[in-house]
Specification:
The complex is a heterodimer.
Chain A lengths: L16 E5 L11 E7 L2 E8 L7 H5 L7 H6 L6 H16 L5 H30 L4 H20 L8 E2 L2 E2 L5 H26 L2 H7 L7 H6 L5 H5 L6 H4 L20 H25 L18 E9 L2 E9 L5 E7 L1 H12 L5 H10 L4 H5 L1
Antiparallel strand pairs in A: 1-2, 2-3, 4-5, 6-7, 7-8
Chain B lengths: L1 H35 L15 H11 L10 H18 L17 H7 L4 H11 L3 H32 L4 H7 L4 H4 L1 H14 L11 H4 L9 H27 L7 H25 L5 H29 L1
Helix pairs in contact in B: 1-11, 1-12, 2-11, 3-5, 3-11, 4-6, 5-6, 6-7, 6-9, 6-13, 9-11, 9-13, 11-12
Classes of the chains: A alpha+beta, B mainly alpha.
Chain lengths: 375, 316
């Protein structure tokens, strides 16, 4: 008999319920299954069951030429394709020793930041759905739509861009795309304020987020968290600043950090990141250098034997690619570090002790993309 | 015998009123929600999309009425009716026009606040008989929530009863004075919030919380039975706004005949609109916050209102 039942109640037992949240569920952000055991409303244990989105990206990578790796990376974290492409391209460039033209560097930063805002907008929209707000989703999609429109104008695609390749990027910025970016920048800060009053400024939401799902500084670091989840816990680690790539060493931007590491901090950090990303986009569009966007490269790249690790700051954290080359046209081993995987580990740690009502909210607050976790 | 006939006529009329209200209400709600959400809402079917609800109703009627294998069949089937009937019944005591309430009873106010509580049983049964973890928890949440909000809701209408000196809705209408509006305003706020909880609207839609419980007690229902649940919620919304308009804002204001009904319905529409506005823009509460709001905020507020009105009456 469980300890919850009163002593004189002899033949009544209070049982625990097991909720299989997912794999098909309104708020699992892709195909994630959480086996949640509850005592009434309170979560006793939670286990993330992975494997519904496994497509064998890493194994496929061993049978693709180096040029083709970005195409695979697009399908990993499908909300921020540019960052995945960039990580794999950086790794190949480092292995082969390719000099990338300066304009390509700047375009990589520009598109990366636009993609970051688009990705955060998708998170923002679904996060509110987890909290039970319906309407603000449409406002976030309005902004995301403008961003996807820009990405489409530059790369030709809305999600799997195939834009960043080893040696540079495939296309220059067109006049149409540039005017679209400028139009977006004119309204975005005001839109962000509007979002803030709609969702973040709502006292009911603040009450739900404050003090929930706290990850302190030490456990955040020992869990291997990166990105906004780590910064919300007060660690100012940002790959863009600490291991600069693309054009970030020449760009100015702030790194928002939180103090308590609760869900509210993670929310605020992401909102501020969008503002900073817009600032970077503005700098990129003003300071874009002239010149080629792609280095001259042979059809088949054959890096000499060796291995390397290259990482970028994706919207979800440090996205790294580990490449082992054996001198042939294809890599011997292709592995990537998906920040969402570590976020899921943190999620399993923060769920027990909270209420079931917060489960969906916490899944939303760590911003995971199962496609990246399961490759 | 005549009572039975009158009851049958009334039952039919209430069903039609709720259906009509749901018909127009769903359309209106979707239009309003559309405006809030940068959309247009229904606009293809009929003028301004007015027939959209009809098409949806037809779809729900024609859909297969699925009874999952594991459910407790009899309870599962009857639960929607247990939820719907009280919503229809509570419409009976509302004073619609000068000197007319379908059932003119001396305990009308008590009837109105007490009868909707019966629908809790239906929701609980629906959740329990579904044999589904989401539904069970949703049903339990609904029970806890409705019972908690019953108290502040009842207390919130008491000041008006005190002022009028009667529980008979028609007497309240006769005695109604304009200065009751500022005097009972706290009561109205409590009534408004508690009614939102009573009819399971955001921010109090915990029983069917989509984010974690999918649809709560209604998760296993489909077709017409699901539609009956939705109608019951609409009936609750209609009844709550009509009753609020009557007791807190003077209903038909002494205007006789059809004009009075129009005044009354307009007032109720404003209240309904406020409810929709809140429910389309607010996040959901957490269960513990929900309970705390009922017991630590609304109930004291309602009691303060009661004392305030009592003091004013003794001073008069």
């Amino acid at each position: 008999m469980s300890p919850r039942a009163a002593e004189h109640v002899e033949h009544t037992a209070t049982g625990r319920m097991v909720f299989d949240v997912g794999s098909q569920h309104p708020s699992t952000h892709g195909l994630l299954r959480l086996a949640i055991e509850t005592d009434g409303e309170e979560i006793v244990s939670a286990e993330a069951c992975l494997g519904f989105l496994h497509r064998g990206i890493e194994k496929l990578g061993e049978h693709r030429r180096y040029h083709q790796l970005p195409t695979l990376m697009d399908r990993g974290d499908y909300l921020s394709g540019i960052h995945g492409e960039l990580a794999s391209a950086l790794a190949v460039e480092r292995l082969r020793g390719i000099e990338v033209p300066p304009k390509a560097h700047w375009l990589r930063s520009l598109l990366g930041e636009i993609n970051r805002i688009a990705s955060h907008m998708a998170w923002y929209g679904t996060f509110g759905r987890d909290a039970g707000v319906t309407s603000h989703f449409f406002y976030s999609m309005r902004d995301r739509e403008a961003l996807l429109d820009i990405l489409e104008a530059v790369t030709g695609q809305r999600m799997t861009f195939n834009y960043v390749r080893p040696g540079g990027v495939i296309a220059d910025l067109t006049v149409v795309a540039e005017s679209k970016i400028r139009r977006f920048l004119r309204t975005f800060d005001a839109h962000l304020d509007e979002h803030q009053t709609f969702l973040g400024g709502n006292e009911l939401l603040q009450k739900r987020l404050r003090g929930v799902g706290v990850i302190d500084r030490d456990s955040a670091m020992s869990l291997g968290l990166t990105g906004a989840n780590l910064r919300a816990s007060g660690v100012p680690y940002d790959v863009r600043r600490d291991r600069p790539y693309a054009a970030y060493s020449e760009l100015e931007f702030g790194i928002p950090i939180g103090t308590t590491g609760d869900a509210m901090d993670r929310y605020l950090v992401r909102i501020e990141e969008m503002r900073q990303a817009a600032r970077i986009v503005r700098q990129c569009i003003e300071g874009l250098p002239e010149g080629a966007v792609m280095a001259k490269l042979p059809k088949a790249l054959r890096p000499r034997e060796g291995e390397t690790y290259a990482c970028v700051e994706s919207p979800r954290g440090e996205l790294g690619v580990h490449l082992v080359a054996d001198g042939s046209e294809t890599p011997r081993r292709f592995h990537y570090r998906a920040p969402s995987l570590f976020a899921i580990a943190a999620l399993e740690q923060m769920l027990p002790g909270t209420l079931l009502a917060d489960a969906a909210l916490l899944v939303g607050s760590v911003d995971i993309v199962p496609g990246e976790v399961e490759r | 015998m005549s009572g039975l006939i009158w009851g049958a006529i009334y039952g039919l009329a209430a069903g039609m009123v709720i259906s009509l209200a749901a018909f127009i209400g769903v359309w209106g709600e979707r239009k309003i929600a559309g405006r809030i959400q940068l959309r247009y809402g229904p606009q293809e079917l009929g003028p301004f999309g007015l027939l959209q609800t009809g098409a949806d109703t037809l779809k729900l009627l024609l859909k297969e009425d699925i009874t999952p294998a594991a459910v407790d069949v009899r309870i599962f089937r009857v639960a929607p009716l247990i939820v719907f009937a009280p919503a229809a019944m509570s419409l009976a005591v509302i004073p619609y026009a000068y000197g007319f309430a379908p059932i003119d009873t001396g305990v009308g106010v008590l009837f109105f606040v007490a009868v909707p509580a019966i629908s809790v049983v239906g929701v609980l049964l629906a959740g329990w008989s579904s044999r589904n973890t989401y539904a069970t928890l949703g049903g339990l949440r609904a029970a806890a929530q409705m019972i908690s909000y019953e108290l502040p809701r009842t207390l919130s209408v008491l000041p008006v009863v005190l002022l009028a000196g009667s529980m008979r809705p028609l007497d309240i209408m006769d005695a109604w004075q304009w200065w009751w509006i500022p005097l009972t305003f706290i009561g109205f706020i409590v009534y408004f919030i508690a009614s939102l909880a009573e009819i399971n609207r955001v921010p109090f839609d915990l029983p069917e919380a989509e984010a974690e419980l999918v649809a709560g007690p209604f998760a296993d229902y489909s077709g017409i039975r699901w539609a009956i649940f939705a109608m019951a919620e609409y009936g609750g919304l209609v009844a709550a706004s009509l009753f609020g308009a009557a007791v807190f804002f003077g209903g038909y204001l002494g205007v006789p005949g059809a004009l009075g009904v129009i005044v009354f319905v307009l007032k109720a529409l404003v209240i309904a609109l406020l409810m929709l506005w809140v429910s389309w823009t607010f996040p959901r509460m957490r269960p513990d916050q929900l309970m705390a709001t009922a017991w630590k905020v609304l109930t004291p507020m309602a009691l303060i209102q009661l004392v305030l009105v009592g003091a004013v009456i003794s001073w008069l």
